[in-house]
Amino acid sequence: MFLVPGDATRDHIIELVRLNLARICALASARQPNVYWLRRDNVISYEERRAKIHRRRS
Known about the structure:
alpha+beta, 3-stranded mixed β-sheet, 2 helices, 14% strand
């Protein structure tokens, strides 16, 4: 599953997919169930994102 920011517009979603299409295809082809966040500069796993948020709050 690939998540986008909740306030993302259609154009923003298109841009995120365009920028990360190769990575999205590689992750989808691996057929390993996971959840990923699409960001402008990268695709990050849900677990990695949660860890970063937790470290910032600590």
